[in-house]
Design brief:
With 160 residues, the protein is mostly helical. 75% of the residues lie in helices and 0% in strands. It holds the Pfam family TetR_N.
Length: 160
């Protein structure tokens, strides 16, 4: 009998209150890519952190680049869904009170960054080294905020 403190690997289906294998992998991957960057993050470490076999990662995503793409899609979709109403309210406010709208946008962005450090870190890390990664990352994560900030800036410049 082993004296190891490592718990035995769980076999079989996950309990209802546990994340699915896909969700667990995406959550672990966000943290790994945010902490270590794309190049240094390993599929084995991500799978271990998620509590799944690395074969599940290969079956669901194929390779690390596809997992990174899935993380990017998940982060962008989650951000957009959670903050659609906030951005709509800021856009409406910008028509009559652009300075207040800019203040709310900055306050929102700061609050989001503090509340979600791994998502913010993921968006700031260097994407994988393939030609479409940087434009894709910028388009999904940075452009929505940058575009809104530019629109607010333009409204601030308009004569009142």
């Amino acid at each position: 009998m082993s004296n190891s403190t490592t718990p035995p690997k769980r076999r079989g289906r996950r309990q209802r209150n546990e994340l699915s294998g896909r969700e667990a992998l995406l959550s672990a991957a966000i943290k790994a890519f945010a902490q270590h960057g794309y190049e240094a993050a390993s599929l084995r470490a991500i799978a271990a952190s998620a509590g799944v076999d690395v074969a599940l990662c290969a079956r669901l995503f194929g390779n690390k680049a596809n997992l990174w793409q899935a993380v990017l899609d998940t982060v962008a979709e989650t951000f957009e869904q959670q903050h659609r109403a906030t951005f709509a309210a800021i856009d409406v406010l910008a028509d009559s009170h652009p300075y207040q709208a800019m203040y709310q946008f900055i306050e929102f962005h700061t609050h989001f960054t503090v509340q979600n450090p791994e998502l913010s870190a993921f968006s700031c890390k260097k994407p994988p080294c393939h030609p479409n990664a940087q434009p894709l990352s910028n388009g999904k994560l940075l452009s929505p905020c940058n575009d809104r900030c530019l629109r607010l800036s333009q409204k601030l410049k308009q004569p009142r």
